[in-house]
Structures are given as structure tokens and as C-alpha cells.
Fold this sequence. Notes:
The protein is globular. By secondary structure, the chain is an alpha/beta fold. The chain is 38% helix and 19% strand. The strands form 2 sheets. A 9-stranded mixed β-sheet has the order 4-3-5-2-1-6-10-11-9, with helices on both faces. Strands 7-8 form a two-stranded antiparallel ribbon. The longest helix has 25 residues, at 67-91. The mean pLDDT is 94. It has helices at 25-39, 57-62, 67-91, 113-121, 139-149, 183-188, 196-204, 219-225, and strands spanning 5-10, 44-49, 96-100, 109-110, 125-129, 154-159, 164-165, 177-178, 180-181, 209-213, 231-233.
Amino acid sequence: MKYKRILxxxxxxxxxxxxxxxxxxxxxxxxSLDIKTVVERGVEVAIVIGGxxxxxxxxxxxxGMDRVQGDYMxxxxxxxxxxxxxxxxxxxxxxxELLSGLAIEPICKEMSRRRAIEAMGEGRVVIIGGGSGNxxxxxxxxxxxxxxxxxxxxxxxxxxxxxxxxADPEKDPSANKYTTLTFAEALSKKLKxxxxxxxxxxxxxxxxxxxxxxxxxxxxxxxxxxxxxxTEVK
Length: 234
């Protein structure tokens, strides 16, 4: 296996499937089976999920809502998604540990590096909700922070696109895909891999980011095995 310990970043929108809002059970099922496959091969897995399928703090602020209030609502949305994924993973027979930047008893304990690493060492899938626990930070930044804290080998960013392209491949059919990029190249080319705060945190800590298509069953295992199906930024 190329990676022994990963931080899997999933967008909230990916959980919608073909819906325009909420959580699609078929997406939860597919993701859980893929995660189970890599866990059964001995890979330690931590997961951060966004909340955009339920609420986005930035969009709320754009409509006049207080930004801080909106961001906390977004954090709660990530916890709803995290709880849904936890339930599905346990349905598949996996042991889990739900932690959060916001401690909400009796749902979850507050995130701590030691707690997360101990849980992964016991074979549990660690799901980290609640973002960073602070407003003004995205779940991208929370992913980078958590990945650095737990000493993950890489952030695996699961999207609906199979990597990073010279342009949006859904809008520009002539766009070319990158296999590998340096952090400097991604910045100079203004490629939106993650937000700048998250990106800088990864670069400072030599933490690779691997972008791949999570919506194709079996792709997560291919990435963990080292098959070149996406784009690596390092």
C-alpha cells in the first residue's frame, strides 16, 4: 500500500447524489463500501466531510446573515453528515469514532490528536466533524489541520472529477489533466486545489494532496495502492 494512514476529504455536495439537497442513501452506501475495502487491508482512515448539501456559512453571509452564526450552522451541518456516514459504516460492520471541533455530548467527543490516533490504532474509522471548531475557516482548512495533527501520509480529496485539469473539464472538453504538480506550480497556475489557507498548511508540512474521482466504486483502493488515477500535489 502506498498510504498507511489517510485523511479522506469528502464534499457535502457529493452526498446529494442526483438530489438537489440532503443525503442520498446510495452515495452513503457506496462510500462506506469503498472505505470498508481499504480498512480491511489495514489502512488507517480519518474522514472530514463538508456540509454544503445542508448549509453553507458563506452563502448565508451573502444573504445578510451574520458570518460567525452562519459558519457555526455550517459546522453543525458537517456533523449531520458525519453522523449519517458513521451510521452507514457501522451498518457495514466497521468500528468508528466520531470526533468534532465542537464537542456535543452525547453525540461526540471533542477532537484531540491523541484520541484520533488511538482510535485508528484500534482499527476504528475516525470521522471528524465540526470543521476546525472556529468560524472563518473552511472544511478544506479543517482537513489540512486534522491531517497534520494525525500525521497522515496524505490528504485524499474525493471529488466527482478524476483529478486536476488545466481548466474545468465539465465546461472545457479540451482541458488537459495533470498527473503530478508541485505546490508552487499549482499556485502559479492558479489551480483551485483547496483554499489558500489549507494549501499553505499542506505545503508547510510537506503533506501531499491527492485529488481523484470518489464517485467511481473501487477508486479509493486504487489510490491507496498507488495506482495513478488522479492528480498528486506535493
